[in-house]
């Protein structure tokens, strides 16, 4: 069998390497190119998509009533929040702040930070972050559960934050899609699982707190308020607070 003819030498390209028909290097490059193209096509199909539409400030606020049992919404100011720098203003889509008052108990301060696309950005509103930034010392930080029904309880964290003349008792929880993680690691894990399933979950950080001297009174007030709030909202508000539970 005769060898394949070698292409003529081109004096204009003295360093050129002759390429013969059926060169294995060319076939390998072609296969690599096809594989890369297929990878790009598949990755485009599996890019995580938003799972819920973006909400307006007005529609978000409308989910939560001005009256919650014996508590009435009185003001939106006076709550501990993270510093309002250029970064923190872009870390959430909605931030609802309310103080509810009743005749026979402490005022309850509520903060709801929400994003329809949860990418870990609500971290800035965790009390462990924003209270020390406001000059508080965290004295206690422990798990706490508030029962909502015989088969379901909101699992979150209970903190005692002290700033000399002001001691605040705080309960907060997070929701990532249908899940309610307690630890930051679990929150990231649920987000990663959702991304692998092809969607980006929404996320809520809910915080309620009271100023009090007595720990038991504070826990009772926070428990009563959270239970009453969940019962007072409509189905959309309940889903926003605790997911499909």
Topology record:
Layout: H1 24-45, E1 49-50, H2 57-61, E2 67-68, E3 71-75, E4 94-101, E5 108-115, H3 127-133, E6 137-149, E7 152-162, E8 167-176, H4 184-196, E9 199-200, E10 203-211, H5 215-232, H6 235-242
Parallel strand pairs: 1-9
Antiparallel strand pairs: 2-3, 3-4, 4-5, 5-10, 6-7, 7-8, 8-10
| Biggest beta-sheet profile | 8 strands, antiparallel
Low-pLDDT segments: 38-46
Strand order, sheet with most strands: 2-3-4-5-10-8-7-6
**Could you say which structural class the secondary elements and strand pairing correspond to?**
alpha+beta
CATH topology: Protein Transport Mog1p, Chain A
Write the CATH architecture name: 3-Layer(aba) Sandwich
Helix content: 25-40%
**Treating each run of at least 4 consecutive H or I residues as one helix, how many helices?**
6
Silhouette = globular
| Strand percentage | 25-35%
Provide the domain count: 1
Q: Kindly state the mean pLDDT as a whole number?
A: 80
Terminal CA distance: 77 Å
How much is the radius of gyration in Å? Answer: 28 Å
* CATH class category: Alpha Beta
Question: How many E-type strands?
Answer: 10
- Name the helix and strand elements from N-terminus to C-terminus, one letter apiece: HEHEEEEHEEEHEEHH
